[in-house]
Amino acid sequence: MTISEDEVKKVRERFESDIISSYQDKDMVVFILKKEALLRFVQFIKEDPDIKMEQVTDITAVDWYQKRDVRFEVVYHFYSYTKNHRIRVKVPVEEQDPKVPSITGLFSGANWFERECWDMYGIVFVNHPDLRRILLYPEFVGHPLRKDYPIDKRQPLVKLIKPEERRERP
Amino acid sequence: MSDLNERVQEITVNMGPSHPAMHGTIRLLITLVGEKVVRCDTQIGYLHRAFEKMSEANKWQAIFPYTDRLNYVSPLMNNVGYAQAVEKLIGIDIPERTKYIRVLLCELSRIADHLTCIAAASMELGAFTVFLYCMEGRDLIWDRIEELTGARVTPAYIRIGGLARDLPEGFLDRTLSILPRIEKVIGDVDALLTENPIFIERMRGTGVISQADAIEIGFTGPCLRSTGIKHDLRKKSPYLVYDRLEFDIPVGSNGDNYDRYMVRMEEMRQSIRIIRQVVRDMPGGKISIDNTMYILPPKEVVYNTIEGVVNHFKLIIDGIQVPAGEVYDATEAANGELGFYLVSDGGGKPVKCRVRSPSFALMQGLEKMVVGGSLADIIPTFGSINMIGGECDR
Fold it and tell me: Which of A60, A67, A77, B49 has the fewest CB within 10 Å, making it most exposed?
């Protein structure tokens, strides 16, 4: 279920300066990465014949509001069908500059997960082909899964849109 | 005479969110050239009820009713998935009997879910009889679930470290007695649809997805298996007692609607096989762990001792204290991989309770499956994906 020691060592050596830390968690191996290295890292785990990640199972973020110095953490889960193993990759993201490179170029399945992450946490995925809100509507104000978004907050009413204007909307 | 090409222009058709075939509220903005679909913008979110935000505001043990409402056709599977993730995070090993009961309920739910999928998909193609037959089969299952949990669709029956209550007297016999009737329903549906030329015409070769696309987009469950990949988490990373049970994983070969239908039909038969084994092997014993840090103390203790009262009170007011850490745990739900990613800071409420729902990833692939086909093919394709709004939008 988890990648072997040798593979972890191989990744560690290759991305020595980019990996902030890596450890074996309860369920799988976790790599905490600098965001500049994300694309290179994802490409490596996709193409390396021993690791061979084929699917991005999930992308989400965790908000450590007032608990950690770096507020957000984008969390990726990868799965390999041929090898039957998973890894978790975490990328810390500053509140002032909530941007990470989009991995849609490498895994087209990341598209909606990244859109949801933008919708809920306001994290911008640079070079995403279609970064719209996905679960909420375009007029929604704020990003509701941030910890400083009150759970009982009300949203302004959306102005009535005439049918002829509606067609122009994305 | 005017040029024919000039007359062919793109038109946009809006399908849903309240369209009879778009069950589960979804909107498709379809661009057509004649009958041919050239673009399909899938817009989800009409059933978004802020599952994650509500979970972060509630205690660990109070999230079960919310998980019921994810996939409301097979709610017990969501219960099991969530309970298992929390148990993994704490490090609890549940009793044998509990494992068997959970497998039994999962497989009953799987049959109910597949019956619903086939019912809805075939009804939209005009086979109303099939719909009624399938509903009869599903009701037989829901009657048993009602008897056990007190509710048909929102049971909230699983607990962290155990179950709400033990099986009632004679439950296993009554479960066994409905199996031949469900088999008859499956047989009838099989006779009505599998070799029906109209059905084959609509299902075969429509909504095709290739193996490589299916993997990359994030397909799991019957939709992935219909492309020929023999992948099932019950076999690949066995949980509960699946490694002790005998069952086969049906796979398709073309990745079209017909294969998805066939995979679901066979999976129901395999589930019945599993249920028979589970009933045969069901051990006696406890249904919950003894550690009252995680499970409510017995009522006799609560009513008669001060320690019991304090214990009960602390669990309700402070919540279960889950050690700090994070875990991703996936189970094979009816539609595919249902994953829970939980983050705890050691308190009574989760910092993060993320659901990786199978329908969300499947809907992402809808565009690939319908583009190039005709407008009418969207109906069987959407039906055979079995999108459940509650799970997709959370």
Answer: A67
